[in-house]
TrEMBL record:
This is EAL domain-containing protein. Residues 24-279 form the EAL domain. The chain holds residues 437 to 729 of 836 of the full protein.
Amino acid sequence: RAKEQGKNRYKVFHTGMNLSSYRNFMLQNELRKAIEREELRLVYQPRIDVKTGAVTSAEALLRWKHPNWGTVLPSEFIPLAEESGQMAELGEWVLRTASKQSVDWQRAGIAPIRVAVNFSAHQFLHRDAGERIRRILEQNELRPELLEIEITETALMGNEESVTRTLRQLKSAGIAVSIDDFGTGYSSLNYLRRFPVDSIKIDKSFVQDLCKSASDSTPFVQAIVSLAQSLRMTVVAEGVETEGQLSKLRALHCDEFQGYLFCPPVEAADFEAFLVRSQAPKTDKTDGTNDPA
Ligand code: C2E
Ligand code: MG
Ligand code: MG
Ligand code: MG
């Protein structure tokens, strides 16, 4: 009923609701208070260079811990936030928090690390998307080359005008854009031709089928990698869980990867410790010289 009313974004509880729409109704109402109650936080997962093992960036992932219901996953509450018009506010919070975090890491003496922030379709297609992002970067004094925006291919579909506008705004501001969950939408090849992005993230479903005999995804991953290479885009594999998958990706010349194999998404403090360890000069030398690698 609330959906049918279009502009009216507040749902009214009624006795005909089933259990899952009741949960959604409750979650949407609670979400309105989540920011001020400080129930939201970001966790960070490193993106790793396949060849060198170096951390290239950090993907920020949103977490919501409700006092009674515990952790609610983004796959559940983000669509609800979109539906009820709360995504703009949530998205701003995410962008601001991630920007501050990157600046804090630098101030703590850690080499500058780029943060990747996920954007919903609404956020990305908003007419002032680029301007809003620029403003938040300025307020937090984060250099634009230290931000990357991730957007799924489904969000790009059928919105050519708005997508082009935002991409142009971001490009002129020096902010990188990547396509998330690549390969799961429909019009991949066609829009890659029209929308020049900086990197492609191969969806984890392809990565997880890399070593499977039944539905081996190798030819697809190979095709995506060579396409990305000829377009001079960085290609990233998501959801790498095994050594077998990683060595296959290395053989296929994939540039970067993320996944539980190396590191799951972790709290900011743990990520910082992880960075310090990975950026520290090797200590197993006794002559005091640093490893040039
Ligand atoms: P995504 O951007 O594709 O993020 C990758 C998801 O894969 C994350 O799930 C991450 O925890 C998970 N993951 C990482 N490594 C592995 C692995 O080795 N194996 C498996 N099976 N999974 C792995 P998460 O954190 O639950 O986020 C789910 C989705 O929710 C994200 O997918 C993204 O689309 C969305 N999301 C998360 N945070 C935000 C946000 O701040 N804003 C928006 N608009 N969307 C967000
Ligand atoms: Mg992502
Ligand atoms: Mg993804
Ligand atoms: Mg995903």
